[in-house]
Amino acid sequence: MKTRKIRMGMVGGGKDAFIGAVHRIAANIDGQVEFCCGALSIHPEIARESGEMLFLPEDRVYMNFEEMIEKESKLPADKRIDFVTIVTPNFAHFAPAMMALDHGFNVVIEKPIALSLEEAKLLQQKVQETGLILCLTHTYSGYPMVKQARQMVKEGKLGAIRKIMVEYPQGWLSTLTEREGNAQAAWRTDPTKSGKSGCMGDIGTHAAQLAEYISGLKITKLCADLNVVVQGRALDDDGNVLLKFDNGASGVLSASQVAAGEENALKIRVYGEKGGLEWNQQEPNTLTLKWLNEPAQIYRAGQAYLSDIAKHNLRVPGGHPEGYLEAFANIYRNFALTVSAKIHGTTPTEAMLDFPRVEDGVRGMAFIDTVVDSSQSDQKWTDFKI
């Protein structure tokens, strides 16, 4: 059977955008994806300059996503794109995603999936109607040692899970930087562009997804306290959440963007009857296992003793760092292999299907809604409702 790379178009991600470059690098690492076209900026000159810098054909540098999707859908099957990657701020996720799905294109989208739970549910409904694939880039689930942790929990190595503690401290919003020319801060702290939550929408959703991904459990209720620490800020920049999971386990989730001096210190600890595990995003090649009445163990990336699912997401021998870009690339690679299998009429493997999808996006938006509702409520617990 003749195979080919799957073809990508991008919405957003022009020359001055951070996350667009990350997506392009990640998509390119495994040689599964060809970057073919883009509507890279709402500013025509930046769109043209970005397309030229990225060596896109002039006739496939578009001025807006509507033009890109319409024109690409009319190209011959051997030319047009297979999927659209959306790397715009939250408020500009829904419209291009919906239009792409309506025109037969699969979608990769930055998290959170949309501006509201209602938009997320509409995208889920469209995915179900079309049979297309929507991938959500919850990057941290792509790390090999996160997958090792998930597999060990799945196999019952820790026994029944009792406690989950996940924290995500950053310090980059410790001042009112959104009023000092920081474009990334400006849209993330603007309710019209970011949604009803700042810190919890931006990084709290990552922490919640990681807790559910590793444990295999679902949050059923929570008790939240959101804070605006920096005076004059429109959205929360700090928060703490108590969690209850569907097996009765309890949890604590803390997220802050005003933890001065912190970089990107996402850390998770999961405890069961027999022991616990700990993973830190800033030391991603290491997974620590802690056993009841036994010595602790250190698991390292690149080793023969790892699970098959972890090995599937490794690229280099032990002792060589595998970091953020490689984790991001694992999501793209698994998505690309799944799309390619569909194109060629084959069944994707379980390992291929291991990437966040529209269901994760809906749960992320429900998490944001529930956290905000809980923080504004006098009740101790708020049910997690989709």
From TrEMBL:
Lineage per the UniProt record: Bacteria, Pseudomonadati, Bacteroidota, Sphingobacteriia, Sphingobacteriales
Domain GFO/IDH/MocA-like oxidoreductase: 146-278
Protein name: Oxidoreductase
Endpoints of the signal sequence: none
Transmembrane segments: none
Organism: Pedobacter ginsengisoli
Sequence ranges assigned to domain Gfo/Idh/MocA-like oxidoreductase N-terminal in this UniProt record: 6-136
PANTHER family: CONSERVED EXPRESSED OXIDOREDUCTASE (EUROFUNG), OXIDOREDUCTASE
GO molecular function: nucleotide binding
